# Entry
Amino acid sequence: MNRGFFPLAVEGRRLLKKECGSALALAAVLYYAAPFLLPVLGVLALLLTGFTLFFFREPRFLPLEPEAGVILAPSYGTVLKTGLEDGRPVVRIFLSVLDVHAQYSPVAGAVIKTAFTGGKFAAAFRDEAAANHRNLIELSMENGETLGIEQIAGSIARRISCPLKAGEVLVRGGRLRLIYFGSQVAVYLPAGAEISASPGQRVFPCRSVLAKLKSAGGDHANSA
# Structure
C-alpha cells in the first residue's frame, strides 16, 4: 500500500515529473515564439495533470484478516467471469479506465516466479483478452498451495508494471504493481477451490471474497 502523503502510485509520480518537464520546456518555447498560446498550454497541462492524478490514485485501505482458506480479490474492478479453465478454477476481473489500476497480494506468501507473455491487444472486457500481453505472478501461500495472479493489458496503453522477483515475501495487501488504462486481472485458484464471487459483482482489493480453498472446509465467508 502507498503510505506517502499523497496517495499516488509511484508510476504516476514518475509520469507527473515527465509531464511537468515537457510542459515547462514547451512553455519556454512558446514564451518567445507564440506567447498567445500559453493560456491554451496551461489549460491542457491542468487537464493532463488532473487525469494523471485520477488514474494513478492509490487509495489507502486496511486488508481484512479473513478466516483460513479464504482468497480475497487482488484489485478493484468488476467480476467478468468465473469458472474452470484447463481444469483450474479462475476468476477474471475487469478494470475500466475509472477503476484504480494497482494490484495487491490477496494472501501472505512468497513469489515463486513471474512470467511475461507477449500477445494481442483486445479490449480487456472481451474473452479474447486472455491472449493479450500479460504477466503471470505465481505465489506460494502459507499452506503450500500455489495462487496465480495474471495482469492482462488492454487495448489502450498496453503496459504492465511488475518489479517483483522470485523469492520476495509478500504480506496480504503488498503491492504487485499496476496495469495501465483499462485492463483485466485473472486469479488462478488451487484445484478444488470453491468460487463465491459472481459475474457483475464489484470487488475491492484484500476486502472482497473471491473463493475458499477446498482444504479449509467449512462455510463460505461473506464478501465485503
Notes: Residues 10-55 form one domain. The longest helix spans residues 10-33. The radius of gyration is 20 Å.
